[in-house]
Each structure stands twice: as structure tokens, then as C-alpha cells.
Write a structure and sequence with these properties.
The protein is mostly helical. The protein has 11 helices and no strands.
């Protein structure tokens, strides 16, 4: 028992040190973002400015609402900025125990995951959100004037960007599942109907029941699902025996 404890104690100490490093980076980035949080809110309000400059003046009805909204936004942005530190610390912790091929696969997975997530979030912010906001504001009239609250608006923008970022990971996950032999090559074709129902359900939950936002998330997910099937047919599953021999 003592030998086992002596073996794991250095690893636990290293893990604690790396976790503390990540938390410290998060706090530093969060504090830095909070210093410029008003500029960040102004940038996130730019889709409203392009539609109607008057809508950029977001309102809040509770005294602590603005403070809490700024803190949540700063914390989220701080976490996003600290992701490279998190990935680096995780890599330095696990890489000594990986084989060369496993290291290559891990780097490829991390790179493609980052690229696809960033692409989905940027697509949501620059393409989907302006069109979605413009559509929703068409319901305004002389009897109904929009007065957008700070907290709900920021939640809407962040939630939509995050949802599309995750959505763009779908083809990559499908291809990886096929290549690694987790599922059969024709699995996603055979269960397409159930997968589509799952896409609608996930989109509904991610967009908090908003039917228009759900539709605008579900349609790209359908296309990404079909893209995953097509790419999965191009890349054949990995031959585990051959991969082992190559190592």
C-alpha cells in the first residue's frame, strides 16, 4: 500500500500544480476581460446596431443585473482565453505516457476540434445571428416596441454561438467513430431517422425552446450529419492489427 501511495503521490502533486495553473490563468484572463467588458458588450451588440442603432442601448431592470451579466461574460471569456493553457497543461501531464502514434492522433483531434468549434461559433455570430435577430425584430410594430434586456441578450448570443460551435463538431465525431471502429460504417445511414429526431430535440434544448432558433440550428445540423456520412465513406476504418504492426 505504501509503495502504491509513493508511486501516485508525485503524479497527484503534478496534477494539482497544473490544475492550479489553469485556475490562475482563468482568473488573470477574467480580470483582464472585465477591464474591457463594456467594449466586449458593445461588440456583441453590433448585430443590433446594423439593424437599428437605437436597439444597441440594452436595458436592465434589476439593480445587480448589469454587474452579474458583466461578471458572467468576463468569466466565460476568461475560460475561453484560458483553454490553450488548459490544453497545454493537460498535454504535458498525459503525453509522457503516450506512444508516438497516440500523440499524433491526440494532436490531430485537438486541432480539428478547435478549428471546427471556432468555425461554428464564427458562423453563428457573423451569419446566423444577424439574420435571426432581423427576423425576430420584424414582429415589432407601433403597438410593440422591442426593449432588449442586457442579460437575456448576452445569454442568447453566447448560447447560440456555443451551440453552433458544438454542432460543427458532428461530422468530425462521426468520422472518428467510424474510423476507430466504434460503430459500423453504415451505422449513421441505418439510424438516420432517429438521428434526425435527436437533432431536433437537441436543437430545441440548446435554443431554449425558441422555434426559429431551433430551425436555424437544426437545418445546418442535418447538412453536417449528411456531410459526416459522406466523409465517413471516403475514410475507411483503421485496421487495428496493421496499426499495431506499424508501431
Amino acid at each position: 500500500m505504501t509503495v502504491l501511495a509513493d508511486h501516485f503521490t508525485p503524479h497527484l502533486r503534478e496534477l494539482r500544480r497544473r490544475v492550479l495553473t489553469v485556475f490562475a490563468a482563468m482568473l488573470v484572463f477574467t480580470a483582464g476581460v472585465y477591464w474591457f467588458v463594456e467594449d466586449l458588450v458593445e461588440h456583441l451588440s453590433s448585430p443590433l446596431v446594423r439593424i437599428d442603432p437605437d436597439l444597441a442601448r440594452l436595458v436592465y431592470t434589476g439593480l445587480p443585473e448589469a454587474l452579474f451579466s458583466y461578471l458572467k461574460l468576463s468569466l466565460l471569456a476568461g475560460f475561453v482565453l484560458a483553454v490553450p493553457v488548459l490544453v497545454y497543461q493537460l498535454w504535458m501531464f498525459v503525453s509522457p505516457g503516450l506512444h508516438r502514434r497516440e500523440k499524433v492522433v491526440a494532436i490531430q483531434v485537438a486541432a480539428w476540434g478547435f478549428i471546427l468549434f471556432s468555425g461554428g461559433a464564427l458562423f453563428a455570430y457573423f451569419v446566423v445571428l444577424p439574420e435571426l435577430i432581423a427576423f425576430l425584430l420584424r414582429f415589432a410594430s407601433d403597438q410593440m416596441q422591442p426593449h432588449l434586456k442586457l442579460g437575456p441578450y448576452l445569454n442568447f448570443v453566447v448560447r447560440s454561438s456555443f451551440a453552433f460551435g458544438l454542432a460543427f463538431e458532428l461530422p468530425f465525431l462521426m468520422v472518428m467513430a467510424t474510423r476507430l471502429g466504434v460503430v459500423a460504417p453504415d451505422y449513421f445511414v441505418r439510424y438516420r431517422t432517429y438521428s434526425y429526431l435527436g437533432v431536433v430535440l437537441v436543437s430545441l434544448l440548446a435554443m431554449a425552446g425558441d422555434p426559429v432558433a431551433t430551425f436555424m440550428l437544426a437545418v445546418p445540423l442535418f447538412l453536417l450529419y449528411e456531410a459526416g456520412i459522406l466523409i465517413g465513406k471516403i475514410f475507411k476504418p483503421v485496421d487495428r492489427d496493421q496499426a499495431t504492426e506499424n508501431e
